[in-house]
């Protein structure tokens, strides 16, 4: 086994603190890479607090992981020592089910292996995430990161990037569409960047009036403050798609009133409590309520290659791992511009 160190929550809701643990020695198909940066996703906060379901503790969060390869197994073909590498929310899946065979490992029917707060495919060994110094992953679940991108700012592409890319691609959002991005945080700001890159007319729906200038800098065409009933009313029947990235309780019915006939409200945010939906919100205008989870491995590489070509990365604030609790507190207040990324040299 390999000695690893990281930051872990020992029990739900307790502050993260240094923790030593072990990872497996790289097998023939494994890549070991030292972690240089790891993004801080709101899902990390949800999971260390058991917001969704009882988690596996101790928990080392982090699924926006980038670093440099230090060891490869004998059969590894895609990577060599010294390469840049990244891992997102998945470290394995069954690879045989109908979804895995269609590059939809995120929807593996036999249960994929999440990067942390999950189990390896033996269904016994807990996984530990990227708030740590090193990681061992099967090469099929390791992504290439271009040298042309700022490495720290590329880390959030592994979750915030692919989670917004995948639905926009699936619903073919682009030229001629009016897209609203609901919530301007880590996911939201990537949704704006991709929506603009795909040619959609993008509106940011936000509870934070102070984010308007940033939204415009990110390329958004319009900005709407959702706590102002007059602005909400004026936006009735406006959008083809709403990409909902909100992490906390909010009234989806109100937002659906802003959709055009046949519009689609896409949930990617996962608030702790289920949201009540009135059927009238769907019936009036034959609207759809949909959801989307991260993305498959091939699609994630496609997104990273697009980002290399179009020089798209996340807007980040680099933090020392010792300040992770403060980052979580700020994230809860919606005060992130627009992704915290841990410099793992501070571990
Ligand atoms: P984040 O950076 O904290 O951004 C969330 C944004 O939601 C905030 O910046 C804020 O934007 C808005 N917001 C917060 N509370 C709100 C409220 N009460 N009402 C309305 N808006 C509110 O979080 P994130 O990392 O982008 O993650 C967002 C959500 O997506 C989380 O629930 C996370 O777990 C989930 N997620 C899902 C997937 C997936 O596969 N589907 C993947 C990753 C993350 P404004 O200030 O602009 O209002
Ligand atoms: Zn995430
Ligand atoms: Zn599968």
Write a concise synopsis of the structure shown.
The chain has 347 residues and is α/β, with parallel strands linked by helices. The protein has 11 helices and 17 strands. The strands form 4 sheets. Strands 3, 4, 5, 8, 9, 16 and 17 form a 7-stranded mixed β-sheet that branches. A 6-stranded parallel β-sheet has the order 12-11-10-13-14-15. A two-stranded antiparallel sheet has the order 1-2.
Give a written overview of the molecule.
- With 347 residues, the protein is α/β, with parallel strands linked by helices.
- The protein has 11 helices and 17 strands.
- It has helices spanning 42-48, 98-101, 151-154, 160-170, 186-197, 212-217, 229-234, 252-256, 279-283, 297-310, 324-332, and strands spanning 2-8, 17-23, 30-40, 65-72, 84-87, 90-92, 113-114, 134-138, 143-144, 178-182, 201-206, 222-225, 239-244, 259-267, 288-291, 316-319, 339-343.
- The strands form 4 sheets. Strands 3, 4, 5, 8, 9, 16 and 17 form a 7-stranded mixed beta sheet that branches. Strands 12-11-10-13-14-15 form a 6-stranded parallel beta sheet.
- The chain is globular and about 60 Å long.
- The two termini are 20 Å apart.
- The model has no long low-confidence stretch (mean pLDDT 98).
